[in-house]
Amino acid sequence: MERKRSENYNREELDTLLTCLEKKPNLLKFDSGVTRNRAFWDSYRKEWGEIASEINKLGFRVLHSGDDVKNKWLDLKCRTRKKEKLIRKESSKWCGQKKLTEIEKRVLTLIRSINEDNAALDNASEHTGLMPDSCARMMENVITLPSSGFVSSDYGVNLPSALADEHHKEKETQPDSDEEDISKLVETQYKMLQEVKE
Questions:
Q1: How far is the C-alpha of 150 from the C-alpha of 164, rounded, in Å?
Q2: Where are the domains of the chain?
Q3: Which of 69, 71, 102, 127 has its CA 20 to 30 A from that of 52?
Q4: Whole-prediction pTM value?
């Protein structure tokens, strides 16, 4: 069976798609690596179907399904990221620069908001000391082996214990000229980058 190419979306359809996604940012934060139950999948498909019906209300000749709309979003996101990388790569050149369209700027704003939310969640879990339940269950089965300075678990993982950590911290406090040089270089490059942006 041959796959049929879907019709191009016009500007109004894309605008409606992005407006709906801006109202439902949780739909974009979906992590495919996480196992979900059937109710989640039904809700997920239903939300994409609702976005498709909003687009179809515009009255253009092509009716889009929820899967079509989701695939359009994924394609739009991928193409916009590629274009942004190309623009950044060519920013050192002085001529022939491409620019992002208004639609692409909105796509990047959505992508960045998702990434910022994910980073905030990561930071919150680091600062609060909270960890996923699966990790907490694994930590219950940890055994400390004092003679070796390592920690062993039922899962066959050997990690440094507090004794090994103290030894590592002593090494960290000793100045390393290479690390200092690298950090100075990174600081200088960062300052130069900020000046270029201004």
A1: 7
A2: 11-122
A3: 102
A4: 0.56
The DSSP bridge partners found for residue 152 are 143, 158
Q: Which residue has the tokens 């930071």?
A: 123
Q: Which helix (H) or strand (E) holds 158?
A: strand 158-160
54-72: pLDDT as tens digits: 999 998 888 999 999 999 9
Quote the DSSP letter at residue 153: E
Q: What is the DSSP letter of 5?
A: P
Cα–Cα distance for residue pair 82/134, rounded to 1 Å: 35
Instruction: Report DSSP state, residue 36.
Output: -
DSSP string for 85-152: HHHHHHTTSSS------HHHHHHHHHHHHHHHHHHHHHHHHHHH----HHHHHHHHTEEEETTTTEEE
What is each CA distance from 33 to 29, 30, 36, in whole angstroms? 12, 9, 9
- CA distances for 7 relative to 1, 47, 109, angstroms: 19, 22, 25
Query: 74: which residues sit within 8 A by CB, 6+ positions away?
Result: none
Q: Which residue has the higher pLDDT, 161 or 80?
A: 80
